[in-house]
Design brief:
Blueprint: H1 2-21, E1 25-29, E2 34-43, E3 46-51, E4 56-60, E5 64-78, E6 83-90, E7 95-100, E8 103-108, E9 112-117, E10 126-137, E11 142-154, E12 158-170, E13 175-189, E14 194-205, E15 210-226, E16 230-245, E17 254-267, E18 273-284, E19 291-304, E20 307-318, E21 329-342
Antiparallel strand pairs: 1-2, 1-5, 2-3, 2-9, 3-4, 5-6, 5-9, 6-7, 7-8, 10-11, 10-21, 11-12, 12-13, 13-14, 14-15, 15-16, 16-17, 17-18, 18-19, 19-20, 20-21
């Protein structure tokens, strides 16, 4: 009897795991088509869906009639500042039902600011983009390579953003890394509006006489507004800098007050495009009177599936640059091809 009970227990466990493994999400299009697979995320007006018979697809929410997603518990943020942990059930066209314990609420896809799964494989929470470009002038014998990337990792309460960019100048005899920016921002979400931040950064700008700058800081951020087509976030706090000039002069640790602003605009009609504006202002505390400002405007224009034409304008200002006889203002335009991915 004991062996029979053990066999029955194993059979029950096997059936339970098999049933769980067979749970699928279903996406219903406005034209009547249906996809079966796994909902990865919803953000910036697009749903990322892993179809059983195709690859991972990026789908405009305007093309979705409704969907059923029960393979995960999801963290869902709305443009009104609400946050829910829920399953998703089918609803009337353009809407989805949230299962909140014993309460069911129906909202439209346009109200969803961000949705990510809370369980499942770790790679389900990664997304990002990478771009590269190259230009060459025969008359001057110089070429310029530019690249940048952004990768985001999302969990229930923590968002981690890795990002960086680099410009490399090439001549017939030399290869020089002239402008580099890279860093990590870790955000802890208190509410859909308020968050705490820790950030680390590395910078290099030979035009301004900066061989390298390490930056560490902490602060708080707020999502000022979130609509169907726009997002805006501001962050402030305190940062610590360690600089080295191109003359090999290392300055003591400096303290700044930062004011950071990120603004995004996205449109998925014709043309399909995304524009982002990032502006950072640093006011010197230990180095009185020093003001630094850097920012970039980036435009991504969809070319084909997951590939975008990338145009970026960047600028850096420092009223007290670390290098002797260095420029206070540096700016430029870079052009490249961007690939966006989500796993």
């Amino acid at each position: 009897m004991k062996e029979i009970r053990n066999i029955c227990s194993w059979l029950l466990l096997f059936l339970t795991l098999t049933t769980k493994a067979q749970i699928k999400d279903t996406l219903f299009f406005t034209n009547g088509s249906i996809l079966v697979g796994e909902l990865k995320s919803i953000s910036l007006g697009k749903a990322v869906f892993d179809d059983d018979n195709m690859d991972i697809l990026n789908i405009k929410v305007t093309k979705i009639r409704t969907l059923k997603a029960v393979s995960h518990i999801y963290r869902l943020e709305t443009i009104h500042g609400d946050i829910y942990y829920t399953l998703l059930e089918g609803a009337s066209p353009g809407n989805v039902q949230l299962k909140l314990g014993g309460v069911i609420r129906e909202i439209s896809f346009e109200e969803i600011s961000k949705l990510v799964p809370l369980n499942g494989k770790t790679e389900d929470l990664w997304r990002g983009n990478a771009s590269a470009g190259y230009s060459y002038s025969k008359s001057s014998g110089t070429g310029q390579f530019n690249s940048n990337f952004s990768v985001e990792y999302l969990t229930k309460k923590i968002d981690v953003l890795f990002g960086g960019s680099a410009i490399i100048n090439q001549t017939d005899t030399t290869l020089e890394l002239t402008n580099v920016n890279g860093g990590t921002v870790v955000s802890y979400l208190f509410t859909p509006v308020w968050e705490a931040n820790i950030f680390f950064a590395y910078q290099r700008n030979l035009e301004q006489g900066l061989s390298r700058r390490y930056q560490e800081g902490a602060g708080a951020g707020a999502n000022i507004f979130s609509t169907e087509h726009t997002r805006m976030k501001i962050i402030s706090g305190i940062v610590f800098n360690q600089e080295k000039s191109i003359e090999e002069v290392i300055t003591p640790t400096q303290v700044d007050i930062p004011f950071m602003m990120n603004f995004s605009f996205f449109r998925f009609g014709k043309p399909d495009m995304t524009a982002t504006l990032k502006e950072n202002l640093f006011v010197g505390i230990t180095q009185k009177g020093r003001i630094r400002q850097d920012g970039q405007v980036t435009l991504n224009w969809k070319l084909v599936q997951d590939f975008y034409i990338n145009l970026q304008f960047y600028h850096n200002y420092d009223n007290q640059p670390p290098g002797q006889n260095s420029e206070k203002l540096d700016f430029g335009v870079v052009f490249g091809l961007t690939y966006k991915f989500s796993e």
